[in-house]
C-alpha cells in the first residue's frame, strides 16, 4: 500500500512527459526518392506557384501589370538620367542594364521569398504531409513567371531602340536561364531549411544579396573590373560567381556590343569570347548547381524532421 501511494498519479506523469524536449528524427528518404516525390507532387507545386502569384497582387487593380511597370520604369529612368542628363557615352546603357537587372531580379526575389517560406507556411507544414521542398521551389517558380513577364519589356525595348541581338549567341539564352533556375533552386531549398533554425538568415541574406549585386557586372561593364583583375592574374575570381556568367550571357546575346568608340578610343564592355566559351561556362554552372541541388536536398532532409518543433 505504501508503495502504491508513493507512485505519482497519471496527471503528474503526463505533465512531466509534456515538459520533456521532443526530438523528431526525420525518416531516411534518399535524395533521388525526394526528387521523385517532388515530381509526383508537381501539381501541388503548380498550385503553390499560383498561390504565390495571387498573394503578391491580392486586391491590386493593375495586378500583373505591376511586374511590367517595374522594368519599364527602370528603363525610362536610366535612359533619361544616363543618356540625356549625364551624357553617358556608353550606347543604350538602359538596355545593357536591363539585360542584367532581369536576371538579378529573378535571383534575388527567389532567394528572398524562399528563405522565409517554411516559416510563413508553418500551418500547413505542421499539419499536412507533403514534400516541404515544394514550398521553396514554388518561390522560384513564381519568380520565374515574373521574369518571363518582365522579359516582354526587354523584348519590346530591343524593338523600339532597334537593337539587333547577336544571333550566334542567342541560342545560349535558354541554357543560361536553365542554369539560373537550377542555381537559385539549390540555394532556395537550403536557405528555407536553415532559416527555420537560424532566423537571422533572412536578415543576413539582405546584406549578402546587396554585396552580391555589386559584385556582379550589372550596372557596370564586365571589362571595367575584368581588365584590372586580368592584369594581376585574378580574372578567374570573377567567375567564381555563377551569376556573373549568366548575366554576361544575356548581355552578350541581347545587348550584343563588346566595345564602343568614344574620344577616339575603344572602350571594352563585354568579353569577346566565342559562343563555345560561353557554352562551356554555362555547362560548368549547371553541373555545379546540380551538385548544390543534391547537397541542398541532403541538408533539407537532415533538418526537416524537427520543423514542427521549431515552428
Q: What does this protein structure show overall?
A:
By secondary structure, the chain is an all-alpha fold. It has one domain. Helices cover 73% and strands 3% of the residues. Strands 1-2 form a two-stranded antiparallel sheet. α6 runs parallel beside α11 (173-197), α11 runs antiparallel to α15 and α11 (173-197) packs parallel to α16.
Give the helices and strands, then pairings.
Blueprint lengths: L1 H5 L3 H10 L11 H10 L1 H15 L8 H21 L7 H23 L1 H4 L1 H6 L5 H28 L6 H4 L2 H25 L2 H15 L7 H10 L3 H4 L3 H14 L3 E4 L2 E4 L6 H30 L2 H4 L1
Antiparallel strand pairs: 1-2
Helix pairs in contact: 4-9, 5-6, 5-9, 6-9, 6-11, 6-12, 6-15, 9-11, 11-15, 11-16, 15-16
Quaternary state of this entry equals single chain
Order of SSEs, N→C?
HHHHHHHHHHHHHHHEEHH
How far apart lie the N and C ends? 45 Å
**Structural domain tally:** 1
Overall helicity: over 70%
Low-confidence stretches: 1-8, 12-26
The count of strands amounts to 2
Number of helices: 17
Main sheet specs: 2 strands, antiparallel
Indicate the mean pLDDT: 82
Beta-strand portion reads under 5%
Shape type: globular
Structure characteristics:
311 residues; mainly alpha; two-stranded antiparallel sheet; 17 helices; 2 strands; globular; disordered N terminus
Quick overview:
The protein is mostly helical.
Amino acid at each position: 500500500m505504501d508503495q502504491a501511494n508513493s507512485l505519482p498519479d497519471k496527471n503528474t506523469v503526463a505533465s512531466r512527459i509534456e515538459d520533456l524536449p521532443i526530438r523528431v528524427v526525420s525518416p531516411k528518404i534518399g535524395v533521388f526518392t525526394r526528387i521523385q516525390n517532388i515530381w509526383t507532387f508537381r501539381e501541388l507545386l503548380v498550385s503553390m506557384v499560383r498561390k504565390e502569384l495571387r498573394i503578391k497582387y491580392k486586391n491590386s487593380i493593375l495586378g500583373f501589370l505591376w511586374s511590367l511597370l517595374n522594368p519599364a520604369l527602370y528603363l525610362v529612368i536610366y535612359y533619361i538620367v544616363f543618356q540625356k542628363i549625364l551624357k553617358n557615352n556608353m550606347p543604350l546603357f538602359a538596355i545593357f542594364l536591363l539585360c542584367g537587372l532581369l536576371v538579378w531580379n529573378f535571383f534575388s526575389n527567389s532567394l528572398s521569398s524562399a528563405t522565409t517560406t517554411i516559416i510563413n507556411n508553418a500551418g500547413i507544414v505542421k499539419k499536412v504531409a507533403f514534400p516541404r521542398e515544394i514550398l521553396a521551389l514554388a518561390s522560384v517558380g513564381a519568380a520565374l513567371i515574373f521574369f518571363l513577364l518582365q522579359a516582354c519589356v526587354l523584348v519590346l525595348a530591343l524593338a523600339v531602340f532597334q537593337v539587333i541581338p547577336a544571333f550566334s549567341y542567342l541560342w545560349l539564352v535558354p541554357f543560361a536561364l536553365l542554369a539560373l533556375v537550377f542555381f537559385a533552386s539549390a540555394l532556395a531549398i537550403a536557405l528555407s531549411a536553415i532559416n527555420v533554425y537560424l532566423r537571422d538568415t533572412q536578415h543576413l541574406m539582405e546584406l549578402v544579396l546587396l554585396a552580391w549585386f555589386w559584385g556582379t557586372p550589372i550596372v557596370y561593364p564586365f571589362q571595367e573590373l575584368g581588365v584590372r583583375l586580368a592584369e594581376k592574374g585574378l580574372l578567374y575570381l570573377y567567375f567564381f560567381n555563377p551569376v556573373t556568367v549568366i548575366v554576361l550571357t544575356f548581355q552578350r546575346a541581347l545587348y550584343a556590343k563588346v566595345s564602343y568608340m568614344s574620344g577616339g578610343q575603344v572602350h571594352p564592355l563585354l568579353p569577346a569570347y566565342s559562343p563555345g566559351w560561353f557554352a562551356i561556362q554555362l555547362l560548368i554552372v549547371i553541373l555545379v548547381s546540380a551538385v548544390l541541388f543534391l547537397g541542398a536536398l541532403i541538408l533539407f532532409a537532415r533538418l526537416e524532421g524537427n520543423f514542427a518543433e521549431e515552428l
